[in-house]
Amino acid sequence: MLRRRDLLTAALGLAALPRGLRAASLPDRLVVAGGALTEIVVALGGAGRLVGVDTTSLYPAKVVEPLPRIGYIRTLSAEGILSLNPSFLLASDQAGPPAVIDQLRAVKLPLALVEETFAADHVPAKVLKVAEALGQDAAGKALAETIAADLASVRAAVSGLAKPSVLFVLSNTGDRLMAAGQATAAETMIGLAGARNAIQGYTSYKPLSAEAALAADPDILVFPDHVVTALGGRAAIARLPQVSVTRAAAAGRIVSMDSLYLLGLGPRTAHAAHDFATALHPGARLPALPARAWTVA
Amino acid sequence: MMRLAGIAVERGRRRIVDGVSLDIAPGRLLAIVGPNGAGKTTLLAAMAGDLRPAAGTVTLDDRDLHSWSPFDLARRRAVMPQAARLGFSLPVRDVVTLGRSPFERSHTRIENAAAVARAIQAADVGHLVNRSYETLSGGEQQRVQLARAIAQLDLETAGAKPMLLLDEPTANLDLAHQHAVLLLARTLAKQGVAVVAILHDLGLAFTYADDVVALHGGRAVALGAPREVLTPGLLRQVFQVDGLVVSGHLVVQGPLAA
Amino acid sequence: MAASLAIGAVPLSLHQVMQALMGQAEDARQAAVVWQLRLPRTLMAGLVGAGLALAGALTQGLFRNPIADPSLIGVSAGAAVVTAALIVFGAILLPPGWLPYAMPLGAFAGSLAVIVIVSRIAMVEARTSVALLLLAGIAINALAMAGTGLLVYLSDDRQMRDITFWTLGSVGGATWVKVAALAPCVVLPLLCAPWFARALDALNLGEREAAHLGFRVERVKRLACLAFALAVGGAVSVSGIIGFVGLVVPHLVRLTFGARHSVLLPLSAVGGATLLILADVVARTIVAPAELPIGLITAFIGGPFFLALLLRRRREFAA
Questions:
Q1: How high is the ipTM of this complex?
Q2: Is residue B258 scored above 60 in pLDDT?
Q3: Chain-chain contact of A103 with C162 (C-beta, under 8 angstroms)
C-alpha cells in the first residue's frame, strides 16, 4: 500500500508536498459507489481511507477485496452505508436508488455525485471532480493531465491506421449474445482504439441475431475474457450460429480482453485503449505508453 | 300480498316460465310442484326478485317488485336456497346470525340475538350451533340455511307480514325432518307469513299446503287447494304416475306402465 | 415495531432509539438514522404490509376463495408494468416533478384494470372459478412480464437496473413523502373495512344469498375492487412487487380467529404490517451493509406456505 502511494506521488511530482497537508484534506472515512471512482480515489492516494465500496469496485483487487461491500451501485442501502460510519460518500451519478441518495442527504452525510458519461475525454474531467470533492485539487490536476496526455498519445498513434469494423459482445446468457450499440463504453473504446463499431442503429446492449451480425459483417469480433471461457474458447465462438457467417469468424479474428480493464472508463482508460488498439491492429507498431502508478496493480 | 300477473321469465333466450298468474297471500302455504324442468326454481327466482320477468309484472303490496330497494325487500322476504356452500367456513351460529343483517340497525343487539335463538330452535339446529358449517351433512346444512331464512323474518313489527321462499326445503332431509320442516312452515303461515315452497314430494304437498300450483312446461296447469289440483288425472298427465287419496293422504303408486 | 427501530446496520441500543425519538439523542447522526431512515422505513413497511394483506383479504372475500392474492392473480404485475413504463417514459412524457405523483396513480390504474379484467373472466354466473382465476392470473402475469421485458429492452442500462430491482420489491427507499403518499391509499380502505365486513360476510353465503339479505352486490364488488386497487397500487408504487403477503396473512388470521370479516379485515392489516416490518428487519440486516430485496424474503416465506396450502386443500381445489 505504502509503496503504491510513494510510487504515485513520485509519478505526479508531488513528493515535495508535505504529507500531513494531503492527509488532512482527504476525508478520513470514505465510502465509494462506482468502480471508476474507486480507481481514481486509489490513484489519488486515498486507498487507506476507504471504509467501504460498492460491488462494481473491483480494482485494485488488493485494495478493495478486504473492504465491506455496500451492495450493487443501483441498490444501495442508506443505513448500510451509515453503519460504516463514513465521513464522506463519493458516488457516481448512476448510484441509487434515488430515494436512498435522498435519504443520505436527509441525514446530512457529506456526499458528492460525480457525473459519468461514455465520452473518453470525460475521464480527466471526472478525475478533477473527484479530486475537488476530496480537496485534492493539485493532485487531481496532475493526474487528469497525465491521463489526457496518454489519451492523446493513443489517438495520435492510431490516427493514420485504417479503421476496421468491430462487433463487441459484452456478455452471453445461455447462447444469447449481447452486442454493444451506441452510447456504450464499448463503442467509446472501439473509437479510441482506431476502429469503428460494426453495429449501428440502437443504443445500449441488445441481443444479437445472426442476420444482424451478417448485416454488420464485422472485420473483428471482440469478447470479454470471461465470455470466451464461458463459451468454450475462440474456436467454439467462431462456430456460434449468430457469428459464424461473418468475415471475422471465417478469418478467425476474435479478440478477447478483460472487460473490467477495457470498459472501466477510469484512470486506466488510455492504457486499455492502447492495449485494445494493439490487438485490433496486429500489423501496426504502436509506441508503448509509459507505465503509471495506477496501471500497475 | 304478492301478485304475479301473466309473467314470462327467460334464462338466456329460453322462455322457462310463461303466462303464470297467481297471488301469494299472507297466512298461507303455497306449494309449487312439477316435474324436472317445469320452471319451478325459475318461478321462485322471479318471486325473490332475482330475475326480472320478460313479460307481465310481479308486484309486492301493489308496487313493482323491482322498484323495491334490496334492503327494503330483504326486510320483507327471506329465501332459503336449495344448497349453499360457504366460501370460508363459519360456525353455525354465525351463519344463522347473517339472517339478521337487514335488522342490524333497526333492532337492538338483544332483539336480534333473541330472533337468532328462536330460529335456531325452530329449525332444530340447537345442537349444531358451535359446529363449523363445512363439517355438517347436507341435510344439516339445509336446516341451518332454513334457520338463517327464518331469522330474517320480521314477525314482531306491526304491519305487512313477511314472505318466506323455500327452494326444495326437504331435498336432503330424513323423513322425520321433512315433516318437521313442513310443520314449521305451516306454523309460520299461521303466524301470518306468506310461505312458498318448491316440493318434489307430492304427498307432502298434499298434506301440508294450503294451495298448490302445478307447473308443466313453464305454464301453471292447475292452481288451487291440494284436493282440487293433485287429482289422478293431473298426476297422470303431468307426472306420469298413478296416485289416489287414501284416508286423507295422497298415495303415489309409481310410474305408469308404458 | 420496536425491533424494527432498534435493529439495523447502524448499531443503536433501544435506549438510544428512545432518546432519538424524544429529541434527546447524543449525536445528530443517531437522531437522523432514527428519524429519517428507520421511522419512515418502518412506517412504510407497515403500511405496505397492511395494504397488501387487507387487499388480499378483500379479494379473497369477494371471490370467496382463499387463493386470491394480489401477486398471484396478476394485479401487482399490472401495477408494476405501468410503473415500469413510467420509469422508462415518465421523464419524456411528463413535466419534470410530476413523476413521483404519477407513479401511484399509474399503479392504481394498472391494478384497477387488472382486477376488473380478472373478475370479469373468473366470475361465471355469480360463482368464481378457481381455475379461471388462476389462469387469468397466469395470462396477465405473462403479459405483464412481456410488457416489462419490452420496457427493459427499450430502456437504458440504468433504467433496466431500476426496473429489475423494483420488481423484487423493497422498502429501502422510504421517505416521509412516500409515507405520506401511501398512507391514504391504505387508511381509506381500512376505514371502509367495517362496511365491507358486513357485505363480505353476506357474500360468503353466495352472491344471490347476499342480495337476498339486502346487499347491493354489484356496488359492493365495485367498491371492493376500488379499495383493493387503491391499496395494491399504493403499495406497489412505493415498494415494487412484494408477493404472498396478501395470501399468507389473511389465511393465518382466518385459521386463528375465524372467517368473520369484521375480525379478518383489521387483523389482516395488523398482521400484514407486522410480517412486513419483520421481513424488512431481516432484509436489511442479513447481508449488511448491503441489503436483500424484501420481495425475496416474503417469497421464501410465502412460496412454501402456498404449496402447503395447496397440499392441504388440494381435493377442494381439484373439484
A1: 0.91
A2: no
A3: no
